Amino acid sequence: MSRGSRVRAAPSWPRLSETGRDVLLELLVHGARPRSELADRLRLSRPTLSRVTKALVAQGLLVEGATELRSTTGRPSELLHVHGASHRFLGVKLTGDRLFAAVTDLTATVVDSVEQPLPNRDPDEVIAAITEVSAGFPGLTGLGVVLGGVVRAGRVVRAGFLDWTDVPLGPRLTETTGVPTAVDNDVQALTAAEHWFGAGAGTTSMVVVTIGAGVGTGLIVDGRLVEGSHGLPPRLGHILVDSTGPHCGYGHRGCAAGFLMTHVILRQLDGSPTYDEAVARVRAGNKQARDVFERSGYALGVLIGTAANFLDPQKILLTGEGLPLYELTTPTVHKGIEDTYEDDPTLIDLDVQPFDFGEWARSAAALAIRKTITGAA
Q1: What value does the mean pLDDT take over residues 252-276?
Q2: Element (H, E) at 136
Q3: Using CA atoms in the order 94, 257, 322, 157, what is the torsion angle rounded to 10 degrees?
Q4: Could you tell me the strand order of the sheet in which 350-352 lies?
Q5: Could you write out the DSSP letters of every residue in 25-90?
Q6: What is the number of other CB atoms lying within 10 angstroms of the CB of residue 125?
């Protein structure tokens, strides 16, 4: 299929009532449950719950599964499951030079993946590349695209890694692929995906911290993703750590991002090493590399401690391609937390998640799922 051609029409998404959406989301986030538990958790009468679930089963979104004994007394209960295979979604993560894609079912379970270099950073060429990838997976219900930058209503206001300004990415991809498309900041999408389908499922408050080429933070408060009034994601990474420290990519001196961004770490080392080479130097006992990483590790601890002071979240999730920094400087990171956090550091549930660019792509697919179900982009 040539670039720019339209893919086969996506399966129609049924019109759901508000109660139907609530039931579907409850099962998506918390897993299979019997009707009796669903009714209790959602405060629905049994007849109402029965009517709603019957409609969802008829629409192909739910299936009845095996029975399970849910209490020490009473009869086994038949469980309702989300029918994952009923719909497929494509998620795409864009970096400055690569495209990572994942196809998931309705439960955000990955069923296929693609990785390829971008032809260049020209928006037309990138859109053509995404369109070509989507054409390889006909029958998609939704498409999600995430990238580092500021996004408003599907339009990329700016994306530094791609050198983009004011690119109507969502509308153009909807036109070229024929698939409803959602676009968002990558950390925001990852935070929402972890809240629905990952380590933060079921929490009402959570902070996500990503470290690597950039430093990102995402917030869940009262069970909802925090979205700024100007389309900006939370930016806790610019808190001041040391006024004599290095400058971050935005020119701020001594902020946490200035210590944690990969390119800032590397420019302090002799010989222009790659990040993997810098990590190898630390492991080999190189003093210069060790000192740089230790300072950065302390800054990471200050950032985590500040996030804990700010929100008192149930969980702080740490991930990103810069995660070896934490692994190499764990005691120093925790020293930074202890020096910053007002209360007992053992109250902080720090969940360090292994990094994989495929998880960013999965979060983009989860973005498409979220938009499809709730209408939120």
Answers
A1: 94
A2: none
A3: 0
A4: 224-225, 215-221, 206-211, 315-319, 350-352
A5: HHHHHH--EEHHHHHHHHT--HHHHHHHHHHHHHTTSEEEEEEE--SSSS--EEEEEE-GGG-EEE
A6: 13
**DSSP codes of every residue in 226-269:** ---TTSPPP-GGGSBS-TTS-B-TTS-BSBHHHHHSHHHHHHTS
Instruction: Say how many C-beta atoms besides its own lie within 10 A of residue 145's C-beta.
Output: 30
pLDDT for residue 5: 41
Dihedral (Cα; 331, 213, 254, 248), 10-degree rounding:
170
Question: Burial, 186: exposed, middle or buried (Cβ in 10 Å; 0-12, 13-18, 19+)?
Answer: buried
User: Which tens digit of pLDDT belongs to each residue from 288-315?
Assistant: 999 999 999 999 999 999 999 999 999 9
Question: Which residue shows structure tokens 């701020």?
Answer: 252
Phi, psi of 345 (to 5 degrees): -60, -20
C-alpha 210/C-alpha 303 separation (Å) is 11
CA gap 52, 80 in Å, rounded: 12
Q: Report phi then psi at 101, rounded to 5.
A: -130, 145
Q: Given phi > 0 = left and psi -120 to 50 = alpha, else beta, which region is 316? A: beta
Where do the DSSP E strands lie in 148-297? 150-152, 155-159, 164-167, 181-185, 206-211, 215-221, 224-225
